[in-house]
Design goal:
Elements (H helix, E strand, L loop, with lengths): L1 H16 L3 E3 L11 E3 L1 H19 L5 E4 L8 H5 L2 H4 L1 E6 L6 E3 H27 L5 H7 L1 H22 L3 H10 L16 E4 L3 E4 L7 E4 L5 H5 L2 H7 L6 E10 L14 E11 L4 H17 L8 E5 L9 E9 L2 E10 L3 H10 L5 E3 L4 E3 L2 E8 H12 E5 L5 E5 L10 E5 L6 H12 L5 E3 L5 H11 L3 E5 L1 H6 L1 E6 L5 E5 L3 H9 L1 H6 L3
Parallel strand pairs: 3-9, 19-20, 19-21
Antiparallel strand pairs: 1-2, 4-5, 4-6, 7-8, 9-10, 10-16, 11-12, 12-13, 13-16, 14-15, 17-18, 21-22, 22-23
Bound molecules: adenosine-5'-triphosphate.
Length: 514
Amino acid sequence: MAQQDDVFKKIVSHAKEYGFVFPSSEIYDGLSAVYDYGQNGVELKNNIKRYWWDAMTLLHENIVGIDSAIFMHPTIWKASGHVDAFNDPLIDNRDSKKRYRADVLIEDHLAKIDDKIAKEVAKAAKRFGDAFDEAQFRATNARVLEHQAHRDALHERFAKAMNDNDLDGLRQIIVDEEIVCPISGTKNWTEVRQFNLMFKTEMGSTADGSMTVYLRPETAQGIFVNYLNVQKTGRMRIPFGIAQIGKAFRNEIVARQFIFRMREFEQMEMQFFVRPGEELKWFAQWKEWRLKWHKALGMGDEKYRYHDHDKLAHYANAATDIEFLMPFGFKEVEGIHSRTNFDLSQHQKFSGKKIEYFDPELNEHYTPYVIETSIGVDRMFLSVLCSAYEEEQLPGGDTRTVLHLPAPLAPVKCAVLPLVRKDGLPEKAREIVDELKFDFATHYEEKDAIGKRYRRQDAIGTPFCITVDHQTLEDNTVTLRERDSMEQTRVKVEDLHALIHDRVSLASLLRKLR
Ligand code: ATP
């Protein structure tokens, strides 16, 4: 684990050093859990968004996009349940004055019990060698059984307290389990209180009465309140979907793990409207399609898993997360939810406007059911960055830091490098850049030795380097160096476009989704 923490720290500093992610307001000592994307980060982020947007809107003729405002009528958040129920249970330690999410303290405690079990298993595996039967050991070892029974009972008690919104119950678990504050090491806890995660602000001048508005905590409601507009003007027939990418804001109590949990972040959400009764079929379909979208990036199929929810939100009848193996464990990157007709019905009730669909095939009016796919852009970005980062040992004893980014997502697709800064090589290199730049993000670099320039491009994940040398002037060929294999091949300048396009185009990635 310590080793994984180290790797994660390196990734965070690499992200800063190479212009991917900066702490917000850094010259003023930063703003907690808010980050800015730098010159390379914004390109990677835009490419992720484009991959998602095109996969939704180009590959599905029944999905269209919108871009709704961040400010919305405050009653929307009453109708959606966010004003009353978008809460986290918080608890303070009186000695360290640190604030925690009570549920997270308990989850971390559960994870510690899991660790103890894993350690027992690892110890026994070492002792018994090849003859080790893990299943049998887990079923019979007294210490493991004791930890497991403790864990299961605790998990059940925790799930019940969360489901019942039982704040005293959560506090009692913390007390009974003797959970201490990681900073002060004491058990001097306050009561558990509910904390609403929405940011509020005022709209309009205070003199003639202003209105409290919220910064949206999810983009989905902007889709629901535009359902009728899009359905009517786009003459959409069920089943159909509406996709949106945009900022969301949550006043997270404990924000940690870099851009994994931020207070301002971005979501890519798609609401798919279906006939009542067909929602579970579509839920299964979207589960499959979304995992395929992730896996097409080629970051390793074993790094994904579904986590089906057994504790469902009151409006949902099925829910699953797609989790990705980050350096700090499997973590949710995307949620897929069958939301029934809860949201549309609530907006119908609160607005007094009829929100129904006339199904010409069934000759029937109904309020559509909804399957939602909701993915955080920043978490996706983090998963791509973590999986791409490698400190590679090279044969000569050298190491290089390289980002094996999926080529269509890379911020820079190719770098054109004159071998020396004279003899007409820079001019020739510029000529090549002027051809390629219309289709690919292309860098020109002439400073430093060629090896150093290759390393700089490796560090930002550039899939191709094109080196212009004296031979180029004679026969119009260049060396094309591939990032991952570091292989160099001599190719004709006129073939460059096709060779690069083949690997870096978004279309090649989208074709894998067919
Ligand atoms: P978590 O349990 O981690 O708080 P959630 O279940 O509340 O997440 P959803 O409301 O389902 O998350 O939001 C959908 C997606 O939005 C998540 O899968 C995640 O990728 C992203 N997301 C949610 N909260 C944050 C945040 N604070 N920072 C960055 N991304 C977030």
